[in-house]
Amino acid sequence: VQLVESGGGLVQPGGSLRLSCAASGFTFSSYGMSWYRQAPGKERELVAGISSAGGLTNYTDSVRGRFTISRNNAKNTVYLQMNSLKLEDTAIYYCGRGRFYADYWGQGTQVTVSS
User: Among 2, 47, 56, 65, which one is most buried in terms of CB atoms within 10 A?
Assistant: First the structure.
């Protein structure tokens, strides 16, 4: 199993970023997927999850309405569109295999929201 995140970076408050996670080594379309994040000094938290076919999604309250998780099973890729970014969204973002609980993780991509 390999999960490779990309798309992180530095953005101003109110800005947008789109994260991507390329998956390989397993049957991608059979698994729910998720995005987690970990800020300095805090525990890793579930940000969003999506079902295997993409029809069901879930979000933590702090990002609902601002973030959108999606997937392209033909490309073995899951995305996280992040809009209206806030300072408190600064964290390392990880892609996980599994919708509510991840059994494999990527290496993470840094998202920094700063003016």
Answer: 47
